[in-house]
Write a structure and sequence with these properties.
two-stranded antiparallel sheet, 4Fe-4S binding protein, metal-binding, alpha+beta, Alpha-Beta Plaits, two-stranded antiparallel ribbon
C-alpha cells in the first residue's frame, strides 16, 4: 500500500521529494503529494519509507 502526505500538516519543506527513491513525490498546487502508482514504500531500497523518516512533522507521511 502506498503512502500519502497529510496536506494540512505538510510544511512544504521539500525534504521528502529528494529522499524518495522512486520519484513518487512532487509539488502540486503548493502541496507535496505522493503518486500511489510510483510509491513502493521504499521496498528494495530501504527498511522504512524515507518520506516518513525524513519528514520534520511526525505523522505527516502515512500509509494510505
Amino acid at each position: 500500500m502506498a503512502y500519502k502526505i497529510i496536506a494540512s500538516q505538510c510544511t512544504v519543506c521539500g525534504a521528502c521529494e529528494f529522499e524518495c527513491p522512486n520519484a513518487a513525490i512532487s509539488l502540486k498546487n503548493d502541496v507535496y503529494v505522493i503518486d500511489p502508482k510510483k510509491c513502493t514504500q521504499c521496498e528494495e531500497h530501504c527498511d522504512t519509507p524515507q518520506c516518513a523518516v525524513i519528514c520534520p512533522v511526525p505523522g505527516t507521511c502515512v500509509q494510505a
